[in-house]
Each structure stands twice: as C-alpha cells, then as structure tokens.
C-alpha cells in the first residue's frame, strides 16, 4: 500500500501547479468578469470565447500540458487514470481551467469513446480535431420527457434504414452545445427497442449542422447559462446520416456508455474535490479577514468545527475516488461499479455542503457573483443529478453490498 | 391552549385562498415566463412590471384583501400578527403574490416603521402612497465593506448639520430598489458613533432621486436578479436633506429596527413556510407522475421518508413561528427575542432542505427555470443570511438559554 | 389561537412543580444510587421498590396530585389531554417521577383501556386498585419471533372455547412485569386469524399468577434492567381463563389499541420532552462548570450552537405534541393519525440527539452512571422502536400526505 | 499509488481470517453468554476469564498469530503499521478477539511504550510477560476532577524525592484494571508543574499491588462493566516506588504519550471499522430475514439507502485511517497530527451511526443483549470521548488547516 502518486504523476502535477499559479489563478477573476460582460444580454447564438483562452491553450500545449487525461502516450500524456486523477483535481479549482489543457468534459469522455470504439475514419474526422482542441463536442443522452435515471425509459431512436441511420428524438442537458466550436454530438438512442435491455441502444456521431438538428433553447442551472458552453435542449428530427456515423454496431451503446462512465466519473469527482478545496480556501480567507464581535468570524461559533469537518470530508472523498480509480485500473470497470457509484454520491454532496458553508461565511457576497461560490454550488447541485441521480447510485452500492450475502437486488433503485 | 385561528383570521384566509386559486395560481407560470421575457437582456434601468400585476392589485383591493399585514383597522385589515400569519403563509406560495395584496417586503416593514414612528408629514408623504400601493420603498442597512452581522460594524453616517442631515455611506442588498415605482429608502446610519452601542444609530427617509444617491449595480442571488425588484448596491454620497427626514431623533435607529424586526420575521418565516408547502407539493406531484424501474419515483428508495420528514419539519416550523407571533403579542418583542431568532434559523433552513429534495426529484428540470424551485432555493439561501445570519441568531438563542441559569453570555456570537 | 395553558392546567402545573422541587428533585440522586444498590446483583425475583416511593405516593395523593392523566373528574383530575400534557412533561425530568403521581406507563394506558372499554366487574377488579396505585399492570403486544411493526404478523392467540378463553403465545418487552406489585397483563392476540386485518385481534386481562404464565427472562436496554420495573419476555402456555377476561368482544383488539395509542403517545412524547429539558440543563451546567484551554467548555467550538439547536428542537417538538393533543381532542384520534405518528418520530429522535450531546460534554462521566444520561439515552433509543418504529410512523405520515393529492398509499411502510 | 496490502500483510490476513472463522466466530455467541453468566452478580473482585480464552491464546501463538502489532520482527510479527492495520480491522469484529492474538488495548500501547522507551530492567520485568500474554496492564491518564481534554489540567503528581518517586492522584477510566491478570499501570503525572507545558509530565510504572494503590470502583459504560476487563476509578495515595520506576526521565511524559498515540489510534480506528463491518452485516442479515408488509424489511423505506451510505462511510473511514498510518510511517507522527485527529473523529462517529441503524432494524432485540449491538454502541460512544473528545480533535484538524494560510490557531479547542 502506498499513497504517494507516481514520480511521473508528481512531475506533471508540479508543472501543472506552476502553470496554474502563473497563468490561471490570476486570470480567474478577470475571466469571470469579462466572460460575463462578453456574453451578457446575448442570446446563445452570439456567445463568444474569451480571447485569452486560445492563448492559454497554446501556452499549455507548448508546455506539454495537453490531453493529460488520455492514457495513450502518443496522443495524450500516457498517464494512467490514477496518475491523472490529481491533475484533474488541480484543474477543478477554476471553472475554465480544464479547457486550457484540453481536458474538459464532455470532450474528454467523447475522445475516449472515439479512441476506444471509433473507426479509423471516425477518428480522423472527429478525434483528431478534438485532440487539437480545434473543435468541441457534446454528449446527448438525457431526455426531457422521461425519468432518465432508468435507461430503459429512453425514447430516442437510431433507426437503421439500408446504409443510412435515422436519428430521432429530443435530448436535453447537452452540455457545451452553445460553444462556437461545438461541431458534433455523440447521440444515444434505441437501435432495437425489443432487444435485451443492455442490447437496445446504439451511439451515433451527429454533426451539429446536419439537417434536422435544432437547438431549441439553452437551460439555466440555478439561473446560470454557463456561456460560452451552455446546456442545450436539442431536437433531432429524423436526421439522416450515412451508416458509418454509427459507433461500433447497433446494440453497442450501453457497453460503450459503461466504458465511458468509469473514468469520466473519476474525472468529475476529482474536479469536484478541487472545487471543494477552493471553496474551503475561500471560506478560511474570508472568515479570517472579517471581524465581528471583536474576533475574526472564523473563530465564532462552530466555524472552526466546520473547517475541520470540511477537511475530513474532502480527504475522505479524495481517497475514495483514488481508490475507485485504482480499482478500475486493477480489476476493470465492472468490478468497480460500487466504488464508481459511491464517489458519484460522495463527491458532489461533499462539495455542495462545503460550498454552502463558504457561502454562509461570505454573507451577502456569497450568494452574488462577487465570488465563484454560486457557480460551484450550481456545479455540485447539478452533479447530484447528472449521470444518474444520487438515488440510483446508492441503489447500485446497496445492490453490490447485498450480493455479498447472496441477496438478489432489484435493478436500479433502492426500493 | 387553542390551535385554531380566530374566526376573523379564518374568514380572511378563506377569501384569500379563493382569490389566489382563481387569480394567482393559474397566472403563476404565465408570470414567470412573461416576466423573464419582459425583463430579459435588459439592464435594470429598463425593468418593467408585468401589466397584469396592477390589475390584480386593483382586484385584490376591491375584494378587501389589501394591507392585510397592518394591525390598524382603518388603514389596514386590523388583524393581529397571529391572525395575519396564516395569510402570509398563503401568499408565500407564489413569488409575486404578496405584492398583489400590498403585503410585500420590504414595504410592509417600512410601512410599519412609518406607522409607528413617522411624523405626520412623513406619513402623509410616504405612508399614504405606500398604503395605496402607488410607490415602493427600500431598506438600506447592510454594508458591503464590513461583517454586518455585528451592528457595531456599521460605517454609514447620518450627520446632523444645523437643520440638515447629511447621509453618507454605501449599502447593498437594498431589495426592491430596481422597481420602477421605488421612491424612497429608509437608511440606517450612525448619528453619533461615540454613543452607547444601542444609541448610535438613526434612520432617515431618503428620496431615491435625491442628489448623491446612486445605484451602483444590481446584485444577483444565485444568478437571479429578481426583476423588476432587484437587490441594489447603492452609494449615498453626502446626500443633504432637511432635518425632518430623520425618523424620530438621532440615536433612535436601533430601537426602531428592533421594533421593525419582530413582526417582519414572522412575515418572512410564514412566507417561507408557504414556499415549503409549495415545494413539497411539487415534489409529490412530480414524484408520483414519473416512473422508473416500474414504479413512480416517489416510491423508490427513501423518497417517502423524505415526504414524511418534510411534513414534520414544515409543521414544526409553522408552530414555532405562530408561537413566536403569539409571544410577541402577549409579552412584547423583547420577551420573544429567543423565539424570533429561533424561527429565523428554523424556517429558512427547513425551506432550503425541502427545496433541495424537490429539486432532486425533478432531475434536470429541477435546476432549470422550468419550475420555481431554484427561485425558492435562492430565497431560502438568502434568508439564511439576510437580517442576521443563522450564526447570530443561534447565538441569541443560546444567550437567552444560558441566562436562565444566570450565566452571562457574550453578545451576538455563539463563541 | 392561544398558546397559554388553561388556568386549571397552570394551577396544577404550579403545584406539581412545587412538589417536584421539594420532594422529587433532591431525592433523585439518592434514588438512583440506592435503587441500584437495593437491586444490584439480584435476580428480578428479588427486586424491591425503594421504600421512599410509597411515602411519596401518599404525599402526592394527599396533595391532590394523583391520577392526573385521567380526564374523568371523579376518578382522576378531570384534565383534558391538552391540559395534562405540560404535567407529563414535568414528570419526564425524573425516571421514577410519574409513578409518584400514579401516572406511569403502561398503567396509564391500561387504566384508560379499562376505563373506556372494561366491564364493570373488570373495572372493579383491576381499575380500582390501579387507580389506587396498589397494583401495577403490563401490556403484552410485541412478540420476539416476528417483525411486530406489522400488526398482521402477530401470532399469539386468544382462542374462545365455550365459556373460556385460551391465551397462548410468547411476548416480550412487557414493561413493568418485574415490579413486585405487577398483577395483571393486558394481552393482545388473534381471536380470529381469518377475519379482516383489523378485526382479527382481541384483548384479554391475564392475571400474572394464572397457571401457564411464565416470565422467561428480563431484557436489558443498553445493559440496564430498569429494576424494579423491568422488561420481560413472557410465555403464555395455553392459559385458560373465564370468558369474562376478554375486554369487549373478539375482534375488538385493534380498535381498543388505536384508542389507547393516541393519548399514550402524547404522554410518552411529553415525558421525552421533559427528559430533553433535563439533558439540556445538565449539558449547560456541566459545560459552564468545567474549564479547558482557559474557558468554560460550553464556550468552546460549536457547543453554544448545540445549545441553541437543542432549544429550537425541544420547543418545536413540544409544540407539535401539543398540537397533536389538540387535534385529538378537537377532531378525534383518526383525524390526528399523521400528527400522532409525527411526534412519535420527532420527540424520541430529538431526545436521543440532545442526550448524546449532553453525554459528550460530560466526557467519561457521561457514559457512566454518575449522571442519569445513559438512562435517558436508553429511554430515547427504545422509544424509537417501541409502539411502532420510526419507519412505520414516517410511512403513516407520508401516507396521509399523499392522500391529500388523491395518491393511494401502501399500508404501513414507506416503500 | 497502490491500494493493495503488501504480500506479507495479505498472507497474515488470510491466516488470521481462517483462524477467526474457525475458532472465534463460532465461539462469539457462546462467549458473550457464558462470560455474562460467569461474571454476573459478581463484584469485580470475583471476575474471572472464560477458560476458553487461554486455550485460544495458546492456539493463536502456535499458529504464529501473536503480537502482530509489534513492528519488531523478533519480539512481534515485524509488520509495519500499515501492514498491521487490516489485521486490526479483522480483530475488531469480535469484542474479545484482539486478546486472543495478544493485540488488545491498552496492552499494545503499553508494550510499545516499554519497547521504545523502557530501560532493560523495565523491559525484563514488564515487557517480557506482557509479550507472553501472561499479565495485563493499564494506562492511567484521565482524571475525574478536571476536563482531561486539556492536558494542562492534569493534577496527578509524580514527585521525585531522592531515589524514590511518590505517585499521587486519582485517575479513572483505567481500562482493564479489573482483569485478574492486571499487574501494572503506566501512570502519567506532573513531575514539574512549573515547567513548559510539554515538559511537565512524567510516566511511571506502578505495580498494582503497591501500597497506596486502591481501585475505588468500576465504571459502567452505558450500564456495561465489561467484565473481566472493566474501567476503574483508582486512587494513588502517595505511592512510594524506587526511582527506576520512572520511564525515561522527568518531563518526558508528553513526548512518550505522543509517540504512543499515533499507532494506538490507528489500531483503535481499524478495530472500529471492523466493528462497523460487523454491524452492517448484522443489519443486512436481520433486514433480509424478517418480513413486514409483504417484504423483507431491508427493502422498506430508506433502508437500502442506509446500507449504501454505511458502505460509503465505512470505506471512506478505512481509507482515511490507512492514509494516516501511511503518513505516520512515511513522515512521522508529527507530520500526521491532523490525519490522526481526523480518524479519531471519523471512525467512532461512523461506527455509532451504523450501529444505531443496525439497532433500529433489529427492533427490540437491538437494544437487548441478544445481539452484540449495544456493546458496539457503547464502544463507539466511549471512543468519541476517550483519548481526547471529538471537539479537541476537530480543533487540531482546524489548527493544521489554518496554519496552511499562516493563520495562527489557538491551542486545543475550536474556539
């Protein structure tokens, strides 16, 4: 047993921290203000990316801090999931930070899908420019009309008609679809509604300019539209595409999704942990810097206990996430289903709690845009729903637990 | 002991519910959508009130449902605080509802200040149009530069110079200042910084068009600007006004604030309870209407336990608030300090928790604007800070508790 | 709405407090020590009642503080449930206090059953000596072999054979059965297992010296046997009794139980609230009396916040209990099912939490017998199970809540 | 980073599990019953050890499962702290298990003190028989008269007079002092009350048969006296001993205590984790084996969510404890102070919560002695106080956290 990151991971981490300290941290308040101004009062059609972002991306690439998430040593950094995890945490401190290093969701997950399951032509057309950070992509799974927590509720279709596929359905919470560089969606739909539950779905690559694709609206998260990324509600109205837009074959969607989710959740959770560290730092700095009743407010009431509880919660969430990453690497996603679900519950709830306390100690400033806290709160709150709500993941953990005693669990819900 | 509202209160409640069911509830989704469109993309200078609001106000006044909060039988409905409380709860279900009945904060509190402490000319100039719903007012207490939880931190000044006062300072979270009809602020500042802590402050009536008053910006709450009301940061740059703009005399500010706070908190908390009832209703309806894993999601996992806990929490918060109201009426604000602080902690925390669960059961819709839930969440979250953060109120409750044992408490903070 | 107890209730409360302050409070530490010595190392067969108890009972009766729980003005004090509630709270502060006033469970509930449902001979034989405090009784419902939270699981039988009944089954948690004066059990069993669920049970009066009744053992609660009361596991081996030992007729058991439970839960919960007040007092006194790091430990960390939260929780639980009592009186037990279940969850959980914190502030003394805290803890913990576990009561509250929306609930369990 | 135990640790773990499965698990219910009978009704002076214990100790020693905690390869198993941790967890499942392998507290900590700090004669006299499991020892630190959470409150003295020491004071919660084989106490007291805070204390070896040593009484924990171990209150009345009974010199007590505490807390917490695993197993088995309302109660309400939360909490607590062990080994106790304090809060609280839920699902059986749950509860509850209460450890974690920002913390209490 050894809790030290590998030498390679530490070396990357050091360079990443140096880069962030020099280029990202001081830019953060500027970005938050200028990005809001740049995209204020504008319909998503007019969203623009802050010009400094492209510069920072170039700098990061130059510095060899690019595609760090990809275990492939040629296309990415060649870091294992466990080696990458601390880097993802570091990026999680700043909203726009992962993009600088081309490690932003959902592009990372989409690149992994293409990398593992894409055909060569699919890779050439989409993976290459994604790896270059030249375009952005979205992932279309959740649907507005049904409880998407139960995958068998999915209604969207990918009908195979001769050498074409017809993509049809309505999706929402398609994150990043408002970005000016968004070009392609990975779309999940039924290829055969009558097949076994895990063989019903397919995944298709849908260019966003294909006829029939229409962004109906952007959805706010607690009032925030997150420009220039956004979360779209998108209709796909019988979008016809050549058959080679299907990833692998029909019925493969569920397996691809499972493969995508494991590492993706590690990334998400590590970023949530980084965000929690930042919230705790803000809490402490504000609490130490303001006085009431003759003392820094940090020393009043139970505030120091909250600091301690936050530290314990963060450290535990981090260790659990690293352990899940290790289990994925050592035994595969299937053997780590319980741990993957566990961190999906633990990390966002922990983040929400700590951000809530950081808001409290900031008083009125905490609920405004004068700090990044409401943004972090919205992130945490949305994460408790996205990619399966807490309830579904608790049910998975319970199911694995009961199976140890030979007790068969019902699928999907702790009921 | 009797838990039934008075006959008069019940009679009003019945009529109020009928009015709300007929005019407000069906309009709510329309209002939320159209108000957002009306005031989207606009600077606060362009905010407008939805035209239906004025019509509804007229209807309510006609129906004798007007100024219900005011215990005076001629100017208001003549209901006691305890009689009014259930009406405030009923109004709390819809964001814009209290205004229909001219019972919206901060106007209610300001009208009470004018009613109890204003001179006749002050009443004629400001109370009359407020009672008519013709103008709106704001309350300027909290300051951006200091921890306002400790009133002794206040820096703003009301200097008396001959027959003039000079109002100087910066305030924020001045709610309602963006409203087109906002005309006057009640401003709290130091009239004598060297006096005893509770004799330092004064309150002045400051017309918002007085030279030197400047709205610096509007503050978002979790991304929401709450048009057409808004929460302003306002600078008062040596605003000169005749001495008769002072309410009562110098040094009276603290006493006036205390008198204002008791009933105001009852109002706030009862509205929060109404909001919680609505969140619980939304939770139940959504949970019963969506299926996953072969059951309504309401029946999955611990969801029904959450319904039960919510019911228990709401009922307890309501009873405590009513009890606090009763104690104010029976023994005066001073004897009810602990209870007033207690409900200020209990009600918003209860609301936040229930809204959080309602959001969860709505999935992605819950964090968007498709439901009123994020608005209710922001309300709850802000209430935990406004008018004294939870921590200050817990400290007050503890102080009163310790005093029962003759243990002297430190002022203001549980430390 | 009026939160003041009736004049009559206040008058009784005053006298009760005076009696407790004079006779009970100073005796409490003596009793706890001497009762432990008296009954230490002894099998339950040797348990004795501290001699001072009988003296105090005589004093209380003389003082007109006797059978206060009974709404009948001739046999008891003639106080309504709502008038009695504050008296029950006052008695809850000391473990042995209710017995002094002949208001101890389960005798109170059993007396109510006899009072409302007993025949004249049953009243003469059992109610009279119970009202005199001359004998004690037990209630035999829960069974060791099944989940008693679901009443349909009950296995014990009351077979009617000619003019006899045959009582057969095994019960446990029969509280008070170790008391030297325990003479009779109210036994619940199936009179017709095939009848409709609520018409299956009967209740019989079983003299504890009847052949076939055997106390198998006493059960400890967290290691405490609660001498001289005790909680017994009792076998009834085909106990033959004359038919007139049945209360009302066959099939009436469920209805009798329901009628018994409403007021009984008010009593239990009010006593729990009194116990919580005492725990909070102990917490404050100890916290103020010990120093660490240069301050009373009460002022360290979040301790004062805990005091405040405890005060809020106690006051809310009290108000909810009083409200439930009022609803029973005003609308009947059936209309108050949700509130009765709610307090059964709220009060013991609140007590457990506050006692836990009081223990914590006492350090090692808190887990020992040097304070009454572990006793109060065991009381709280057992109350969360007895008379229906939390889960069953939450399910009831949820069921009533859903019914408001026309959603049919499943019986008995939040699933 | 690697979460797999070392090959050596795994090998030991396998053998330990095999031994426990074969010899300990089946004996557990027998032991609990027979030990209670053996020591019932008896004063601690008559406590005896169940005869099977000695046999099991012999078997364990034979099997090479002896003194596993001691990193010394000759005297113990030579396992590192991190290698031993999973073994401690395995032993934590059964109350009497650690003793079988001579790994029971406080002997382990005392042996470590003697091993690291004892003189050769001290080792020969006390360490040797302790390593053989021939005698038992106690640790006397906590005092009844003061808040021992603040070490500067300590009043006991070790006065040096010529070539003698005089040990004087009163201690309590001296665990294991009732054991028939208990022979020696490590006693902490002031050697120089005027020295710097960390140089005031000394530690002395006090034979329990020395004149002036008197066990005043045994203290129950939630009513349990834990025979044949017990927790004693002990007076030391000017006990005169040769100077060589002092460990190291005067003023060294604090440093020795610190060195003792790190590994000791890892042991405690790992055992607590094993206990939590057992409680969760009991919860699941009982919940699956009893039915109510037509389903196993495990599937009712939020019970499966509780299983999931328990799994997450246990795994996080384990990882944090292992991480703390790793940090001690890698960087020393001083660098791991925050983590050591963190696990001291996290593990017992987690255990208490899970045991509480396991009790709930057992109904009445859960609070009785029919399961080991109340014993596990008492263990958890006492652990939250022993070796520094939660509050002191949270304060330590907060202090280390603030120091990262250069904010000086006050000593010892989150205030």
UniProtKB/TrEMBL annotation, chains A, B, C, D:
Q: Which residues form the Acyl-CoA oxidase/dehydrogenase middle domain?
A: 139-239
According to the entry, every stretch annotated as the Acyl-CoA dehydrogenase/oxidase C-terminal domain falls at: 251-400
What keywords are assigned to this protein?
Answer: FAD, Flavoprotein, Oxidoreductase
GO MF annotations in UniProt: acyl-CoA dehydrogenase activity; flavin adenine dinucleotide binding
Cofactor(s) required for function per UniProt: FAD
List the GO biological process terms.
Answer: fatty acid beta-oxidation using acyl-CoA dehydrogenase
Domain Acyl-CoA dehydrogenase/oxidase N-terminal per the UniProt entry, residue ranges:
43-133
Fetch the InterPro entries from UniProt.
Acyl-CoA_dehydrogenase (IPR050741), Acyl-CoA_Oxase/DH_mid-dom (IPR006091), Acyl-CoA_Oxase/DH_mid-dom_sf (IPR046373), AcylCo_DH-like_C (IPR036250), AcylCo_DH/oxidase_C (IPR009075), AcylCoA_DH/ox_N (IPR013786), AcylCoA_DH/ox_N_sf (IPR037069), AcylCoA_DH/oxidase_NM_dom_sf (IPR009100)
Tell me any Pfam family this protein matches. Answer: Acyl-CoA_dh_M
Gene Ontology CC annotations of this record: cytoplasm
Family, per entry = Belongs to the acyl-CoA dehydrogenase family.
Record text on subunit structure and interactions: Homodimer.
State what protein this is by name.
Answer: Acyl-CoA dehydrogenase
Species, as recorded? Lysobacter enzymogenes
Per the UniProt record, the lineage of the source organism begins with: Bacteria, Pseudomonadati, Pseudomonadota, Gammaproteobacteria, Lysobacterales
């Amino acid at each position: 047993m050894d809790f030290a990151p590998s030498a390679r991971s530490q070396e990357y981490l050091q360079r990443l921290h140096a880069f962030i300290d020099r280029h990202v941290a001081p830019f953060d308040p500027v970005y938050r203000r200028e990005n809001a101004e740049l995209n204020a009062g504008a319909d998503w059609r007019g969203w623009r990316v802050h010009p400094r972002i492209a510069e920072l991306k170039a700098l990061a690439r130059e510095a060899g801090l690019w595609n760090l998430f990809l275990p492939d040593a040629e296309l990415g950094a060649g870091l294992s999931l466990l080696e990458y995890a601390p880097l993802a945490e570091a990026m999680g401190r700043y909203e726009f930070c992962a993009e600088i290093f081309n490690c932003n969701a959902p592009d990372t997950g989409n690149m992994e899908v293409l990398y593992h399951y894409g055909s060569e032509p699919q890779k050439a057309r989409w993976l290459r420019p994604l790896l270059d950070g030249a375009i952005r992509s979205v992932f279309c799974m959740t649907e507005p009309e049904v409880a998407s927590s139960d995958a068998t509720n999915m209604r969207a279709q990918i009908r195979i008609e001769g050498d074409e596929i017809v993509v049809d359905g309505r999706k929402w919470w398609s994150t990043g679809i408002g970005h000016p560089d968004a070009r392609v969606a990975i779309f999940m739909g039924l290829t055969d509604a009558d097949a076994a539950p895990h063989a019903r779905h397919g995944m298709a690559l849908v260019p966003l300019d294909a006829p029939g694709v229409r962004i109906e609206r952007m959805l706010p998260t607690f009032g925030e539209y997150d420009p220039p990324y956004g979360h779209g509600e998108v209709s796909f109205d019988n979008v016809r595409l050549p058959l080679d837009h299907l990833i692998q074959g029909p019925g493969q969607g569920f397996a691809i999704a499972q493969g995508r989710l494991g590492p993706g959740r590690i990334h998400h959770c590590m970023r949530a942990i980084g965000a929690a560290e930042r919230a705790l730092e803000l809490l402490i700095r504000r609490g130490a810097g303001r006085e009431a009743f003759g003392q820094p407010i940090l020393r009043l009431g139970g505030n120091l206990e909250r600091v301690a509880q936050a530290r314990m919660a963060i450290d535990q969430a981090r260790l659990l996430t690293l352990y899940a990453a290790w289990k994925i690497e050592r035994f595969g996603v299937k053997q780590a289903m319980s741990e993957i679900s566990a961190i999906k519950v633990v990390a966002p709830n922990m983040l929400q709690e700590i951000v809530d306390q950081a808001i409290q100690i900031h008083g009125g400033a905490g609920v405004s845009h004068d700090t990044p806290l409401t943004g972090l709160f919205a992130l945490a709150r949305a994460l408790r729903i996205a990619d399966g709500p807490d309830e579904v993941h608790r049910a998975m953990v319970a199911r694995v637990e009961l199976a140890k005693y030979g007790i068969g669990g019902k699928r999907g819900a702790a009921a």
